[in-house]
Amino acid sequence: MPASPLGWSEIFDQSKAGSDSVVPFLGTAQALAADARLVIEVGCGRGGAVDLDQARPFQDLRGPGRTVIGIDVDAVGVDNPVVDEFRLIDETGKWPLADGEVDLAVSDFVLEHVADPKAFVAELTRTLRPGGVLVARTISRYSPLSIAARAVPNARHARVLRRLQPTREARDVFPTQYRMNTRRDLAALLDHDYEWALAHRTGLDQYLLRWPALAKFATVAEPRLPSGLHTALVVFARKRG
Protein backbone atom coordinates (compact mmCIF):
# COMPACT_ATOMS: atom_id res chain seq x y z
CA MET A 1 0.00 0.00 0.00
CA PRO A 2 1.54 3.36 -0.99
CA ALA A 3 2.38 5.82 1.77
CA SER A 4 0.12 8.84 2.24
CA PRO A 5 1.54 12.04 0.72
CA LEU A 6 2.91 14.56 3.19
CA GLY A 7 1.22 17.88 3.84
CA TRP A 8 -1.97 19.39 2.52
CA SER A 9 -2.63 20.38 -1.06
CA GLU A 10 -2.68 24.17 -0.53
CA ILE A 11 1.07 24.15 0.18
CA PHE A 12 1.77 22.95 -3.35
CA ASP A 13 -0.89 25.00 -5.15
CA GLN A 14 0.79 28.07 -6.66
CA SER A 15 -2.50 29.97 -6.77
CA LYS A 16 -3.02 29.53 -3.02
CA ALA A 17 0.35 29.05 -1.32
CA GLY A 18 0.90 32.76 -0.74
CA SER A 19 -2.64 33.74 0.18
CA ASP A 20 -4.72 30.84 1.57
CA SER A 21 -5.34 30.65 5.33
CA VAL A 22 -4.68 26.96 5.90
CA VAL A 23 -0.87 27.19 5.77
CA PRO A 24 -0.32 30.03 8.28
CA PHE A 25 -3.10 28.79 10.56
CA LEU A 26 -2.49 25.06 10.71
CA GLY A 27 1.22 25.28 9.98
CA THR A 28 1.72 27.61 12.95
CA ALA A 29 -0.57 25.54 15.18
CA GLN A 30 1.32 22.35 14.37
CA ALA A 31 4.69 24.00 14.96
CA LEU A 32 3.66 25.46 18.32
CA ALA A 33 1.95 22.26 19.42
CA ALA A 34 5.29 20.45 19.12
CA ASP A 35 6.54 22.49 22.11
CA ALA A 36 3.30 22.40 24.11
CA ARG A 37 2.20 20.10 26.89
CA LEU A 38 -1.45 21.18 27.01
CA VAL A 39 -3.31 22.27 23.89
CA ILE A 40 -6.97 23.28 23.90
CA GLU A 41 -9.26 23.50 20.90
CA VAL A 42 -11.80 26.19 21.69
CA GLY A 43 -15.14 25.46 20.07
CA CYS A 44 -13.98 22.05 18.94
CA GLY A 45 -17.43 20.86 17.81
CA ARG A 46 -17.80 17.31 16.61
CA GLY A 47 -14.91 17.65 14.15
CA GLY A 48 -17.14 17.67 11.10
CA ALA A 49 -14.41 19.21 8.93
CA VAL A 50 -11.77 16.64 9.88
CA ASP A 51 -10.77 14.53 6.88
CA LEU A 52 -10.77 11.02 8.30
CA ASP A 53 -9.60 9.60 4.96
CA GLN A 54 -6.13 10.90 5.74
CA ALA A 55 -3.84 8.72 7.80
CA ARG A 56 -3.24 11.78 9.99
CA PRO A 57 -5.70 14.65 9.47
CA PHE A 58 -3.86 17.97 9.38
CA GLN A 59 -6.20 19.30 12.10
CA ASP A 60 -4.85 16.66 14.48
CA LEU A 61 -2.57 18.35 17.04
CA ARG A 62 -2.17 15.31 19.27
CA GLY A 63 1.25 13.81 19.84
CA PRO A 64 3.65 12.27 22.35
CA GLY A 65 4.13 14.31 25.50
CA ARG A 66 1.07 16.55 25.10
CA THR A 67 -2.66 16.46 25.69
CA VAL A 68 -5.28 18.04 23.45
CA ILE A 69 -8.50 19.02 25.21
CA GLY A 70 -11.54 20.12 23.23
CA ILE A 71 -13.97 22.54 24.85
CA ASP A 72 -17.37 23.60 23.54
CA VAL A 73 -20.80 24.76 24.67
CA ASP A 74 -22.31 21.82 22.76
CA ALA A 75 -21.92 18.25 24.02
CA VAL A 76 -21.35 16.99 20.44
CA GLY A 77 -17.67 17.72 21.10
CA VAL A 78 -17.48 14.32 22.76
CA ASP A 79 -17.49 12.85 19.24
CA ASN A 80 -14.51 14.91 18.01
CA PRO A 81 -11.96 12.40 16.68
CA VAL A 82 -8.82 14.55 17.13
CA VAL A 83 -8.97 15.47 20.82
CA ASP A 84 -7.74 13.40 23.74
CA GLU A 85 -10.49 14.66 26.01
CA PHE A 86 -13.65 16.73 25.74
CA ARG A 87 -14.93 19.15 28.38
CA LEU A 88 -18.28 20.94 28.22
CA ILE A 89 -18.52 24.70 28.83
CA ASP A 90 -21.51 25.14 31.12
CA GLU A 91 -24.07 27.94 31.26
CA THR A 92 -21.73 30.14 33.33
CA GLY A 93 -19.41 30.40 30.32
CA LYS A 94 -16.35 29.57 32.42
CA TRP A 95 -13.92 27.33 30.58
CA PRO A 96 -13.41 24.00 32.41
CA LEU A 97 -9.68 24.55 32.86
CA ALA A 98 -7.40 25.71 35.66
CA ASP A 99 -5.77 29.11 35.76
CA GLY A 100 -2.61 29.39 33.70
CA GLU A 101 -2.38 25.75 32.63
CA VAL A 102 -2.74 26.06 28.84
CA ASP A 103 0.26 26.37 26.51
CA LEU A 104 -1.61 26.70 23.23
CA ALA A 105 -5.22 27.55 22.40
CA VAL A 106 -6.45 26.90 18.86
CA SER A 107 -9.76 28.10 17.46
CA ASP A 108 -10.91 27.43 13.90
CA PHE A 109 -13.80 29.46 12.49
CA VAL A 110 -15.27 30.07 15.95
CA LEU A 111 -14.62 33.75 16.72
CA GLU A 112 -17.34 34.86 14.31
CA HIS A 113 -19.86 33.05 16.52
CA VAL A 114 -18.78 34.58 19.86
CA ALA A 115 -21.57 36.67 21.39
CA ASP A 116 -19.50 38.06 24.29
CA PRO A 117 -15.93 38.75 23.12
CA LYS A 118 -14.83 40.30 26.43
CA ALA A 119 -15.86 37.19 28.35
CA PHE A 120 -14.17 34.97 25.75
CA VAL A 121 -10.86 36.83 26.00
CA ALA A 122 -11.11 36.98 29.80
CA GLU A 123 -11.31 33.18 29.93
CA LEU A 124 -8.52 32.86 27.38
CA THR A 125 -6.31 35.13 29.49
CA ARG A 126 -7.18 33.29 32.68
CA THR A 127 -6.34 29.85 31.34
CA LEU A 128 -3.24 30.62 29.22
CA ARG A 129 0.10 30.55 31.00
CA PRO A 130 2.40 33.56 30.59
CA GLY A 131 3.92 33.17 27.14
CA GLY A 132 1.05 30.92 26.04
CA VAL A 133 -0.42 31.44 22.60
CA LEU A 134 -3.75 31.68 20.79
CA VAL A 135 -3.84 30.80 17.09
CA ALA A 136 -7.27 31.43 15.57
CA ARG A 137 -8.82 31.52 12.12
CA THR A 138 -12.05 33.39 11.50
CA ILE A 139 -14.03 35.34 8.89
CA SER A 140 -13.30 39.02 8.34
CA ARG A 141 -16.29 41.26 9.00
CA TYR A 142 -15.44 43.23 5.85
CA SER A 143 -15.23 40.26 3.51
CA PRO A 144 -17.89 39.75 0.81
CA LEU A 145 -18.74 36.46 2.53
CA SER A 146 -19.46 38.18 5.86
CA ILE A 147 -21.42 40.98 4.21
CA ALA A 148 -23.59 38.42 2.43
CA ALA A 149 -23.99 36.33 5.59
CA ARG A 150 -25.12 39.33 7.63
CA ALA A 151 -27.75 40.10 5.01
CA VAL A 152 -29.30 36.66 5.64
CA PRO A 153 -31.13 36.02 8.94
CA ASN A 154 -29.36 33.46 11.12
CA ALA A 155 -32.41 31.21 10.93
CA ARG A 156 -31.81 30.79 7.18
CA HIS A 157 -28.03 30.25 7.26
CA ALA A 158 -28.28 26.46 7.19
CA ARG A 159 -30.47 26.55 4.08
CA VAL A 160 -28.14 28.94 2.24
CA LEU A 161 -24.97 27.08 3.24
CA ARG A 162 -26.53 23.83 2.04
CA ARG A 163 -26.41 25.31 -1.47
CA LEU A 164 -22.86 26.59 -1.11
CA GLN A 165 -21.45 23.57 0.74
CA PRO A 166 -23.70 20.53 0.16
CA THR A 167 -21.57 18.28 2.39
CA ARG A 168 -21.97 20.59 5.38
CA GLU A 169 -24.64 19.38 7.78
CA ALA A 170 -27.22 21.71 9.32
CA ARG A 171 -26.05 20.73 12.82
CA ASP A 172 -22.67 22.29 12.00
CA VAL A 173 -24.16 25.71 11.19
CA PHE A 174 -24.31 28.19 14.09
CA PRO A 175 -25.51 31.80 14.52
CA THR A 176 -22.93 34.40 13.56
CA GLN A 177 -22.12 37.59 15.48
CA TYR A 178 -18.93 39.10 13.92
CA ARG A 179 -18.12 41.02 17.12
CA MET A 180 -14.37 40.28 17.14
CA ASN A 181 -13.71 40.13 13.42
CA THR A 182 -11.87 43.35 12.57
CA ARG A 183 -8.43 44.64 13.48
CA ARG A 184 -10.02 47.36 15.60
CA ASP A 185 -12.17 44.86 17.52
CA LEU A 186 -9.18 42.63 18.18
CA ALA A 187 -6.97 45.54 19.24
CA ALA A 188 -9.51 46.58 21.86
CA LEU A 189 -9.60 43.02 23.19
CA LEU A 190 -5.92 42.02 22.97
CA ASP A 191 -3.69 45.09 23.25
CA HIS A 192 -3.57 45.10 27.04
CA ASP A 193 -2.41 41.55 27.71
CA TYR A 194 -0.99 40.24 24.42
CA GLU A 195 1.60 40.64 21.76
CA TRP A 196 -0.39 39.91 18.66
CA ALA A 197 -0.46 39.97 14.88
CA LEU A 198 -3.13 39.57 12.23
CA ALA A 199 -2.88 38.04 8.76
CA HIS A 200 -5.50 38.58 6.05
CA ARG A 201 -5.99 35.54 3.84
CA THR A 202 -8.22 34.43 0.98
CA GLY A 203 -10.72 31.57 0.89
CA LEU A 204 -13.86 32.68 -0.91
CA ASP A 205 -13.34 29.96 -3.53
CA GLN A 206 -14.07 27.28 -0.91
CA TYR A 207 -17.68 28.50 -0.76
CA LEU A 208 -18.06 28.40 -4.55
CA LEU A 209 -16.88 24.86 -5.30
CA ARG A 210 -20.29 23.90 -6.71
CA TRP A 211 -19.61 26.40 -9.47
CA PRO A 212 -16.07 25.64 -10.72
CA ALA A 213 -15.88 28.68 -13.01
CA LEU A 214 -16.83 31.03 -10.16
CA ALA A 215 -14.43 29.30 -7.78
CA LYS A 216 -11.61 29.66 -10.29
CA PHE A 217 -12.46 33.33 -10.80
CA ALA A 218 -12.43 33.90 -7.01
CA THR A 219 -9.03 32.20 -6.74
CA VAL A 220 -7.61 34.71 -9.20
CA ALA A 221 -9.60 37.80 -8.22
CA GLU A 222 -9.68 37.71 -4.42
CA PRO A 223 -5.90 38.11 -3.90
CA ARG A 224 -6.13 41.32 -5.94
CA LEU A 225 -8.68 42.89 -3.60
CA PRO A 226 -7.49 45.12 -0.74
CA SER A 227 -6.39 42.78 2.04
CA GLY A 228 -9.14 44.05 4.33
CA LEU A 229 -11.70 42.48 2.02
CA HIS A 230 -10.12 39.02 2.07
CA THR A 231 -12.25 36.25 3.51
CA ALA A 232 -10.16 34.97 6.41
CA LEU A 233 -8.31 36.45 9.36
CA VAL A 234 -5.58 34.47 11.09
CA VAL A 235 -4.87 35.72 14.61
CA PHE A 236 -1.62 35.07 16.47
CA ALA A 237 -1.64 36.26 20.11
CA ARG A 238 0.93 35.56 22.83
CA LYS A 239 0.13 36.36 26.44
CA ARG A 240 2.60 38.73 28.03
CA GLY A 241 4.61 37.39 30.90
Key attributes of the depicted protein:
single chain; 241 residues; alpha/beta; Rossmann fold; seven-stranded mixed β-sheet; 6 helices; 21% strand; globular
Helix-strand blueprint:
Layout: H1 22-33, E1 38-42, E2 67-72, E3 85-88, E4 102-108, H2 117-127, E5 128-139, H3 144-151, H4 157-164, H5 183-190, E6 194-201, H6 212-221, E7 232-239
Parallel strand pairs: 1-2, 1-4, 2-3, 4-5
Antiparallel strand pairs: 5-7, 6-7
Please, could you describe this protein's structure?
By secondary structure, this protein is α/β, with parallel strands linked by helices. It has helices at residues 22-33, 117-127, 144-151, 157-164, 183-190, 212-221; strands spanning 38-42, 67-72, 85-88, 102-108, 128-139, 194-201, 232-239. Strands 3-2-1-4-5-7-6 form a seven-stranded mixed beta sheet. The model has no long low-confidence stretch (mean pLDDT 90).
Q: Report the uncertain regions.
A: none
State the major sheet.
7 strands, mixed
Based on the structure given, which CATH architecture is correct?
Answer: 3-Layer(aba) Sandwich
The average pLDDT value, as a whole number, equals 90
Radius of gyration of CA atoms, rounded to a whole number: 17 Å
Query: What is the percentage of strand-forming residues?
Result: 15-25%
CATH topology category name:
Rossmann fold
What general outline do the C-alpha atoms trace?
A: globular
Strand order of the largest sheet: 3-2-1-4-5-7-6
The top-level CATH class is Alpha Beta
The chain-level structural class is alpha/beta
Give, in order, the helices and strands.
HEEEEHEHHHEHE
Helix content: 10-25%
CATH superfamily heading: Vaccinia Virus protein VP39
Count of all domains: 1
Individual helix count: 6
